[in-house]
């Protein structure tokens, strides 16, 4: 898929099927993350954790359910894989770095015919709670790393075709 079609095809998918995602596809998606721009070349402050199956993602979903007290919560919508980007710091540039990696992964997934979703809320909700340590253990994070964002992945029955979208931002102004 060319870049323009890929950008137009990417969309947030919130309904994944029970089909597992092949390991070679996950490898390609991780590789795309590693090509992202990283502010001040702080590569050593980033860490990726791959939960590669429904069973592994289920551990994350179970943690979210315990934390929220909502037994039916599914912030990753039955995803077949979840890739979490963590940082050594929680500075703005670290979040920007994670977002660049995540967008690369969203586009790579789209190119491979997979549905994808940027999942931030459920990750952020663990910060400063007793579940932060449990999540760090699940993600096998090095000491001091904090999860900054994630991408949920999987097959979907949602149509993945280029969209025509209206301008969704407040404005676009070319300044003379
Ligand atoms: C930084 C960021 C955080 C997001 N967090 C979540 C999230 O936690 N859960 C969710 O369902 N969608 C999340 N999204 C997806 C947005 O809701 C989505 O991109 C937006 O509604 C536009 O829809 P589109 O992705 O289909 O173009 C997030 C997107 C970004 C960029």
Detail the topology: elements first, then pairings.
Elements: H1 3-9, H2 23-34, E1 46-51, H3 54-68, E2 81-87, H4 92-111, E3 115-119, H5 121-124, H6 131-138, E4 146-154
Antiparallel strand pairs: 1-2, 2-4, 3-4
Helix pairs in contact: 2-4, 3-6
The chain binds flavin mononucleotide (FMN).
Flavin mononucleotide binds next to strand 3.
Q: Total strand count, please? A: 4
- The oligomeric state is single chain
What is bound: which ligands?
flavin mononucleotide
Overall pLDDT: 96
CATH class: Alpha Beta
Q: Walk across the major sheet and give the strand order.
A: 1-2-4-3
CATH topology: NADH Oxidase
Which structural class matches the secondary elements? Answer: alpha+beta
**What is the H level of CATH, i.e. the homologous superfamily?**
NADH Oxidase
Helical residue percent?
A: 25-40%
Instruction: Please tell me the total number of domains.
Output: 1
H/E element sequence: HHEHEHEHHE
Helices, by number, come to: 6
The major β-sheet equals: 4 strands, antiparallel
Radius of gyration: 16 Å
The share of residues in extended strands comes to 15-25%
How would you concisely characterize the structure shown here?
The chain is an alpha+beta fold and 176 residues long. The chain has helices at residues 3-9, 23-34, 54-68, 92-111, 121-124, 131-138, and strands at 46-51, 81-87, 115-119, 146-154.
